[in-house]
Design goal:
Length: 315
């Protein structure tokens, strides 16, 4: 396996850090997965899954979103940008996609987004409509736009009170405060991430994980969520694009499965022909870091292989 890192520059010339994992024989690459990571984490946390993919001749690219990982270290962790943050994170996705396409001009590309990254991914594909062969959404959710509007009002008030770069404990409590309640007695404040305590400890000990995001990031993200949660937004995806949605039955982000079901239904109602939903019993938020992560990874790759075979049959 060949592993490397690099930096590209966004539309505002901000440096965007990325990683890629490639098979030793480039001519054997069957597909590329572009990973969009979650909130308060970074691209390197997907290395184990990337190794699983490379073993099946699937290349993986993952970049650190603004305010995250090595990209965020250039400015401030937990902060997209002072202005137009949502627009810029979507633009960054496009810039990375264009780089992948230049590197692999004829290879089928899939996008996988986890949690916050699943929302950014949807915002990106709805707006830019890239040439992808499948959409994979992990640890995601669907809620009605009105709920996000109420939350954004609170974020705006905190921003007015303390400024755009303020890391609000109030917003943190309102968003994540209840997530651990289902897992009492708690061993850590992040038990909701995974039932594998070793993986949770890795997250806690990682200096690029678990930080509090700024009021401006929350304003940006919630504005994006309002946009992508409109029923009309789902119709911007080509009806021929296959979608895989997966998550844990015990994931509070996905409302313990109901949010995943609602998300799946919205894609189906929008006319998407091929929507697969996989909810793992006893799984928590990070299924790629759960005790059955090998099974989860194999399921993703099996789904991807089935889409590649369908493409071959058409061609």
């Amino acid at each position: 396996m060949e592993s490397s890192t690099g930096t590209i520059h966004g539309t505002d010339n901000s440096p965007i850090f990325y990683r890629c994992w490639l098979p030793d024989q480039p001519d054997q690459i069957q597909a590329v997965i572009h990973i969009s990571h979650g909130m308060a984490e970074h691209s390197k946390r997907y290395e184990r899954f990337a190794e699983q993919c490379v073993a099946k001749n699937v290349a993986v690219y993952a970049h650190d979103h603004r305010g995250h990982g090595h990209t965020g270290a250039k400015d401030m962790l937990g902060h997209y940008c002072d202005h137009k943050g949502w627009k810029l994170v979507l633009s960054d996705m496009n810039d990375v996609q264009c780089m992948i396409r230049r590197n692999h001009p004829t290879t089928p590309i899939f996008i996988m987004g986890h949690s916050m990254g699943s929302f950014i991914t949807q915002g990106y594909v709805f707006k830019y409509q890239p040439d992808i062969k499948g959409l994979i959404l992990s640890g995601s959710n669907y809620s009605a736009p009105i709920k996000y509007k109420a939350a954004r009002l609170i974020a705006k008030m905190e921003k007015l009170r303390k400024g755009p770069r303020f890391q609000s404990n109030l917003i943190e409590k309102l968003t994540f405060g209840s997530f651990n309640q289902r897992f009492k007695p708690n061993q850590t404040q992040y038990d909701w991430l995974s039932s594998d305590l070793t993986e949770v400890r890795k997250y806690i000990e990682d200096p690029h994980c678990g930080f509090i995001c700024t009021t401006q990031l929350w304003c940006d993200l919630l504005a994006g969520l309002i946009n992508i949660s409109q029923p009309s937004a789902f119709k911007r995806l080509s009806p021929d694009t296959p979608v895989l949605i997966f998550g844990g039955q015990e994931d509070p982000v996905g409302h313990f499965g109901s949010g995943l079901i609602a998300l799946s239904r919205h894609y189906t109602d929008a006319g998407i022909k091929d929507v697969d939903l996989q909810i793992y019993s006893q799984g928590r938020h990070e299924m790629l870091n759960e005790v059955n992560r090998e099974e989860v990874g194999l399921h993703i790759l099996s789904w991807l292989d089935s889409k590649l075979r369908a493409l071959d049959s058409v061609n």
